[in-house]
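Appendix C reproduces, verbatim, an entry submitted by the partner laboratory led by Prof. M.T., so that reviewers can inspect both the input and the predicted structure.
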Amino acid sequence: MPAIQSLGIDVGSTTVKIVGLDAAGEMVWHMLEQAEPRVEHQIERFLELAKGETLSLNGIPLVSTGYGRKLVKQANRQVTEITCHARGIFREFPHSGTLVDIGGQDSKVIGISSAGKVVDFMMNDKCAAGTGRFLENTSSRLGVPLERMGEEALSVSEEHPISSTCTVFAESEIISLLANGTSVAVILRGLHRSLVKRIVAMIRTVGIVSPLMFSGGVVKNPAITQLLEEETGEEVVMPQRPQLMGAYGAALIALELAGD
C-alpha cells in the first residue's frame, strides 16, 4: 500500500470516518464505524490503527471535521463539514453542481462553483424531520429494518402524505394511519416523500446547478434517490464512497498543509 501522507477524520453524530491519502491525493486507507458514547476513545483507537498502517504519524497532518471535530485534539486544523464535503465531492466531480448530504442528525445542501468553492449552502441541524434520524425512528415503530425501508417504499405506487413537520407529531400521524388500516408500504412511501420535499425546499433556496450530487449515509436508501429525481427533474449522481466525502475532503485539506 502507498504511504499515507495525510489523514482526515469526520466525527459525525452517528458514524466516525477516517481517510488516509497518498501523495497524489488518492484514498489508500479508510475506516467507518458507528459512533461510540465515548468518541474520544474511538478517535484514539482510529489513530492507533492509522499508525499501524504508516509505522509513525510523525509529520503526517490531520484535519478533523463533522459534528464532533473539536473533540479531535490531535488535529492540526478543524474545518467545517460544509467546506470538507465540498472539497471531497469536487475531487471526484471537478465541476460546478449542487450537493445534497443527508446525515443522521442533519442535512446540508451546498452550491459548488466551477472552481470547487462553496457559493451558497443551507443546513438543517435543528429538526430531525429532514434527516436520517427521521427514518430510524420510523423503522422501529413500523418494524421494518432500516436497510429495507427504501425498497418497501418503492414496492407500491400509492402513498399517504405525512403532513407533520416534527418527528414526534409524525409518529402520532403514523400510529393513526396504522389504526385506520393503511398499509406499511403506503405509509413508508409517504414518509420518504415528506422527507424529500423538505430537502427539495432547501435545494430551491440554494438553487439547483446540475448535476445534483448526493452523499451521506442515507444515500444507501433507493427511495430517497428516486424521489429526489422525481421532485427535482434532475438526475442524481453519487461518488464511489458517499459516506466518506467529509473525511476525504478533510484529508485533502491536510495534504495541502503537508505541501505548505
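The chain has eight helices and ten strands. Additional entries are available on request from the coordinating office.
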